[in-house]
């Protein structure tokens, strides 16, 4: 049995975040929300996820309903099973002198994720296999988990570990690992068509600002922005635990994922690295090309990387059975910055400027997918007479017509029902908006008709 | 109702141009014909076109019949309508002192094309919207038209315009714009097959040597050359007004354009720029590849540009409904040389050398299309024994056989009914003629059979 | 009528070559065998071929049966006919002074291959058209044949030719050209499947170490190595005269050549040039890609050249009717080294090191083809849970998992029944063995199933 509950926040986020209007300073708004999301102990299940979704609901404001799903432990999901729910009372390591040496209340990262409950007394040497540190980064606490093998442990700085005196230690891990449920949030914003644009972000990482409070915050603001405007696609935003969350969602929505025309996994959007798009497994999906256009339009350094089956939830969406047109957007990639999965991924590590830049590129990518269509020229034999339709300059002359009219001519020439506007812009070497505006003008005088299928990606399945 | 009249000139062009034999100096012959074609007032309809076609017929000589078609004003043609016929009696602008300031009798470019008849008196300021000049080229007269919006005007040098005194001017434009017909010329030279090679050039531009007296002259000489020799393809040469002419021809021949296997639009063949080929919309039609080979063989600088829906009549032939394998050949492209569409496109601007060079490249392009075929090896299992067929050297030795025999081996290996000789030459890295000669030798001993369809391009539709 | 005889050598080759175990020093073993193969007069038919095959049989040892086929003269084979059998008693040219000037007993190359019997007396000038030398290499004897045009002649050094005195010469060519048979050897080593790997080498060249005693020797040692181990493919090794031999074999096996999934023609494996692979006509056959991987893995200079219809027996296997996935492996290519087809292609020209290197690259190419398969992920929806199958590390952490697990993830992501392991390794940028080992591990827990067809190349026909 699965519970779902609609948890529309009663008010929007504090400060300038009331209503559905966009904040005046999106970067600051996002950074503030990252700060709100940071504190709670959080894992793939448990109260931390629910607390997180309540923060998201408040930030969404009253007009954007977030549905919270609870999927019981033990539910078979694809090749996996929903795990037991993990909750943390307290977790402390007490030294030979009776003083607390490590306390998860100070930093959720101190506790190995999914640690089983333990009350034990042991020597430092017995304890060592349960203590995790980073010798090469002696002042940072690493992030470690053991979801599917029962274990327990503490993470601490290597400097701290090295200073621990010999003697007897008291382990007091007061956790529960019991049948409960996996919790995720979902927002559906209906559009003109049932074709879907999926935006998904993982909610399971504790106490790290970039990975992935930045993703949760950005998805929240995208939902507000999308809710405020007209939508051709139906937008679906997921706030789910990594891996098991996307697997659970895919298992529960297996029959309808075919509606997904475009998708984006959001991770690590606030660090100072260049914006980075990772292509879908298909490599040439409309969202892959739209993201490339959006990044090129910034005229700043950026990266587009090929799909690989390593990373975040794109691994599941792009598994060969689903093969969905889902790419990933972020900045620094997992593992390539030293702060990755450590206590150094903190509020200083993410900046309002980077968050705002990521948000803008994502909005532009979405806008391009919204505008992209596959049209058919209704007068394909010869050029139609644009002049009598008011689309052509009166006095036939030399060259400056080109800037104005090339968009019209290219769209007429290539809109044969097989090429999207992205295809046409690429072939013509024209800005996407020029081509899209030309198409709107031509459609306005019935020189274009939409082809059977919806957006360009429709045949990509 | 449409009139057609066969207007075979009774004698060939002057000088060395009698009979169908090629002139000894094609560049000089072409330049002389450009000079003959230059003077008359000419537009998309009217007596100027008929005068032009009479000049063409004379230059063709008695053995190459030119059919002149007249299509009545008001005839619906694709998305357009054949316009009223425009004729010019005289067109003068008379200054405040009663003297003629601008007179179309001096240069047809002085009159805005398709100017409506006007008799009016007005101040210079009232007149200004009807006066066109080129501020950045103060000594040149621009070429301007207003076919589909009723208007009138004069074109003059900017220096002249700047010197016009204030005062009252007399406009005397004695034109007629009445129901009549659109006139075009057509030559059909039947070949062994009904597959067609289309050559087309526009006849509507007045008083400019390169654009497009050079095209008209070159098409004329190509017709003479093609008429004199054997032809595999049926050749069709069109002398038509730009845009409306090709639209009219396409509308009248809509059911048979599928026979067109190759096509070339000829424009601007006499200037000093490098020869330039613009690919068909298909981009890899046989004519596109043949032109590339012909240009490469010159071992001189040249350009091959991708299709774009801007330019000359290739816009119509390559509209998506027709999508014919028609490229464009010329030298300087429209708009890229300053003399384009001005009075500076004169007899000095075109040279006999450039005209002769363009003519030679066109003949070679046509020759390659004529020779290109798609053969099938009749003994495809193992190599056939060339020795007993007299195609192989007697003493098996080392290396110099390669130059002789590689053509035979490549054709045998690749002639599987799907690859044309152009394909094979490209894959083999051999000259086209080497491959074509090898194919002839192999066909001569029945080691090759022609595939069902005609030329290589037959399946390209 | 065709005779076949199984001629299993009673003992292996001398020295360390007994049994089927590989020799300790393959390069030395191969060089010794080249020396054994060098002496006899040899051509496309005759006793020389039989002597050669007896040497091969001895070197194969008792456990690798070589079948010797005799195909009667006059048998029609594809477009050819099996020629008369040529045998040589003696061949001498006697000078004006009665002394022997040239004697084929000194070097088989002295006699033009397939020389007809001659007893004649003639002047030096009458003789000249029958004397072949290399003016640019005055100390080398060229190799010349005249298989299909009756002729006779002597080959000698240019220095020798220049020193011949005028006068009457005695020609004593004691050859027979009579109905007999064409002889070739064949080894079949059955594998788990009937899909075949063809290895072929020509046996017709006399007295030249690289071309092609090196090929015969290498094929012999490959047969020993393959016979000693497990085999997925059925291996077929051919020792055949060039051109007419492969044509004869193809004619006799026309109905079953479709079983050939991979093939290699072996020529010139012992010279000091870089190893060179020539692609099959298909260009992307599995063997083409496997050879490229094997060569890249050497991390030493090598060449991969595109198919051309000139060369050795790949000409026949890759004729368009057969179009088999057969490439060619060797070092220096025919005609590109001066020693090619001369007496300078001797035992000094080939080295044990080059022979051993060629042998190692061939074994690796074969091994890759043996391991390459096209698998299908049996759990393609989402990632399967590798952890519970013991394929995943227990503690989820940072980066060093990549080296271990990327192979598993890439195979799962791409094994969709259309991509071979070679495809996956190439796309993933991983070593072939990493991908193959990952596939073995996944198949071991039933996460992969083999697709219908056998090896990757199965659909390439």
Automatic annotation (TrEMBL), chains A, B, C:
Pfam families: DUF2172 (PF09940), DUF4910 (PF16254), HTH_47 (PF16221). Residues 373-449 form the UCP01524 winged helix-turn-helix domain. Transmembrane segments: none annotated. Residues 31-372 form the DUF4910 domain. InterPro entries: DUF2172, DUF4910, UCP015244, UCP01524_HTH, WH-like_DNA-bd_sf. Its cofactor is Zn(2+). One of its GO terms (molecular function) is metal ion binding. Zn(2+) binds at residues 205, 211, 341. Keywords: Metal-binding, Zinc. Residues 85-176 form the DUF2172 domain. It comes from the Bacteria. Residues 1-24 are annotated as: Disordered. Binds 1 zinc ion per subunit. This is Uncharacterized protein. It comes from Frankia torreyi.
């Amino acid at each position: 049995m699965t519970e779902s509950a609609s948890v529309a926040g009663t008010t929007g986020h504090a400060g300038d975040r009331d209503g559905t209007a966009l904040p005046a300073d999106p970067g600051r708004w996002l950074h503030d929300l990252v700060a709100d999301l940071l504190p709670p102990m959080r894992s793939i299940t448990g109260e931390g996820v629910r607390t997180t979704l309540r923060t998201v609901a408040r930030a969404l404001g009253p007009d954007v309903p977030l549905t919270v799903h609870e999927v019981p432990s033990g539910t078979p999901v694809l090749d996996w099973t929903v795990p037991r729910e993990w909750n943390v009372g307290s977790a402390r390591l007490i030294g030979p002198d009776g003083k607390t040496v490590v306390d998860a209340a100070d930093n959720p990262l101190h506790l190995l994720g999914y640690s089983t409950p333990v009350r034990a007394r042991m020597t430092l040497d017995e304890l060592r296999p349960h203590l995790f540190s980073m010798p090469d980064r002696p002042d940072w606490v690493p992030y470690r988990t053991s979801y599917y093998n029962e274990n327990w442990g503490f993470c601490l700085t290597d400097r701290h570990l090295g200073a621990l005196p010999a003697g007897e230690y008291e382990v007091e891990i007061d956790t529960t690992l019991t049948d409960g449920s996996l919790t995720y949030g979902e927002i559906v914003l209906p559009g003109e068509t049932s074709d879907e644009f999926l935006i998904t972000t993982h909610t399971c990482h504790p106490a790290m600002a970039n990975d992935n409070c930045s993703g949760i915050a950005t998805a929240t603001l995208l939902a507000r922005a999308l809710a405020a405007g007209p939508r051709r696609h139906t937008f679906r935003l997921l706030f789910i635990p990594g891996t098991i969350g996307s697997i659970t969602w895919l298992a529960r929505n297996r029959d309808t994922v075919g509606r997904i025309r475009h998708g984006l996994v959001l991770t690590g959007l606030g660090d100072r690295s260049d914006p980075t798009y990772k292509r879908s497994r298909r490599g040439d999906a409309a969202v892959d090309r739209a993201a490339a256009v959006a990044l090129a339009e910034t005229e700043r350094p950026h990266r587009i990387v090929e799909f690989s089956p390593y990373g975040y939830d794109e691994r599941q969406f792009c598994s060969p059975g689903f093969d969905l047109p889902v790419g990933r957007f972020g900045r620094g990639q997992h593992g390539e910055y030293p702060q990755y999965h450590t206590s150094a991924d903190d509020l200083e590590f993410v900046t309002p400027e980077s968050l705002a830049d990521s948000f803008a590129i994502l909005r532009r990518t979405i806008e391009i997918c919204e505008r992209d269509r596959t049209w058919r020229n209704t007068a394909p034999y010869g050029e139609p007479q644009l002049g009598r339709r008011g689309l052509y300059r009166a006095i036939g002359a030399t060259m400056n017509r080109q800037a104005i009219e090339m968009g019209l001519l290219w769209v007429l020439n290539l809109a044969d029902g097989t090429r999207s506007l992205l295809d046409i812009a690429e072939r013509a070497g024209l800005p996407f908006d020029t081509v899209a505006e030309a198409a709107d003008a031509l459609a306005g005088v019935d020189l274009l008709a939409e082809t059977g299928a919806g957006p360009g990606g429709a045949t990509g399945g």
